[in-house]
Amino acid sequence: RRPPRSTLFPSRRSSDLSMDANTVSNEDLLKASGRGDREAFQRLYQQTNRRVYAYLSRLLSNHSLVDDLFVDVYSEIWKSAGNYLGNSSATTWIIGVARNMAMNHLKRQRHHDELDAVEHRLPAHEDEAVEQQQRIGLVHRALAELKPQHREILGLIMLRECSYQTVADIMDIPINTAKTRVFYAKDLLRKKLIEMGVSNDDL
Q: What three-state secondary structure class fits 36?
């Protein structure tokens, strides 16, 4: 599913950045957005929107809700871009904004959704395809029984392949705490799968 077209770019002002997309970093674009450069903000949106939308989709399974929150996230990024100090990558900072808004929504609505944390690959044989689909279904069911924070951190590590440092930055926690939470979340997922009849040797 593609992210909705943004309606966040009304009148443009002249950008103070070179238009060479190969030399301007997302960090530069975010800083320029903080100075009120709408053209830089639009380019930042083009560079990051798919990742943000995918991240929100894994926390909130309601597509209409994801669409609404997605627009709100970029509105918030535009308003708060001036607070970006460059202590982390622009992507980490942006995902952090999306995370905070999504978690605030979950707390308000108490709406717990399934996090898709398994990447699909093409199986070699038909029987392998059936077995794989069954395994994926079990993982989905196990994930659905975990708390949102456990689903989130597993998604960042397993699906987005984020480093522990990136996870720590996004969640605003020490790196050792991030490692501990990942270990705990994986252990909970393993126990859920065993409860569902998956052999410990298959994990």
A: coil
Q: What is the CA radius of gyration of the chain?
A: 19
First to last CA, the chain: 30
Residue 174's Cβ-count burial label (10 Å; 0-12, 13-18, 19+) is exposed
pLDDT given for residue 106 in this prediction: 73
Successive 10-residue mean pLDDT values, the chain, 203 residues: 55 54 83 93 93 83 82 93 89 89 73 38 45 69 81 76 80 86 88 78 57
Q: At a CB cut-off of 8 Å and minimum separation 6, what does 45 contact? A: 6, 8, 9, 74
Integer CA distances (angstroms), 101 to 95, 98, 120, in order: 10, 5, 28
Measured between alpha carbons, how far is 72 from 44 in angstroms, rounded to an integer?
Answer: 16
Q: Is the pTM of this model over 0.70?
A: no
37: CB partners within 8 A, 6+ apart: 13, 15, 16, 17
The DSSP code for 64 is H
What torsion do the CA atoms of 191, 145, 142, 104 make, to the nearest 10 degrees?
-110
C-beta of residue 63 within 8 angstroms of C-beta of residue 114 = no
